[in-house]
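Milestone M4 deliverable, item 7.
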Amino acid sequence: MSDGLFPPAAPGRQRGATRAGALAIAAATLAGSALAAHSVTSVGRQVSPAPPCSATAVKPGDWVADDADGCWERRGDRPYFRTTWGNRYYYHWEPPPTSRYHGGGGVGG
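Output delivered:
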């Protein structure tokens, strides 16, 4: 009995498809199917613009809910994209990949 998953074949016994070849074909087919399904579902998908942040004032020590999708907040002379994680605000130039608004383009909402 061999120790490997695919025991070595005796010389001259590898006619037709081998197990390794069959696995390679199956893996390529699966990867191709996944890529095709992804491209079909994402064609023409519109990313909606992110909303402006609400003007609620938060006092120091208040709990702020996580908001991974974020919103636009004007700070100074330009808008920033704000997300909230772990009771902290994070500011970005544009929506980060974790936001559903990522890829919407443009700065400011």
